[in-house]
Specification:
By secondary structure, this protein is mainly beta. The chain is built from one helix and seven strands. It has a single domain, classed as Sandwich (mini-chromosome maintenance (MCM) complex, domain 2), CATH 2.60.320.10. InterPro entries: NusG_2_sf.
């Protein structure tokens, strides 16, 4: 799992260990939680809280973004789930 802020890559973490991460952004601190192989924004100083309402991410390729605070989460590695199937 990779966290990016307005300066680029902030940190990369494994989802194997539960932890809480505080990430500073232009509006203040965004709080991120890793639990049971999943990650999510738990609190953010943004007005509408869209990033928090996105909920838990658990599959490679998933992402959550707080545009006002300029912070993003992305799950890296493994097989990405399909966005669509064509035949």
């Amino acid at each position: 799992m990779q966290i990016r802020d307005h300066n680029g890559i902030f940190a990369t973490f494994s989802l194997a260990q539960d932890r809480d991460i505080d990430v500073p952004g232009p509006l203040g601190i965004s709080h991120i939680s890793i639990r049971q192989g999943r990650v999510r924004f738990t609190q953010s100083p943004c007005r509408n809280q869209y990033c928090v309402h996105q909920g838990w991410l658990s599959h490679a390729g998933q992402a959550a973004v707080c545009l006002p605070n300029q912070i993003s989460l992305e799950l890296l590695g493994g097989e990405k789930s399909y966005d669509s199937l064509n035949y």
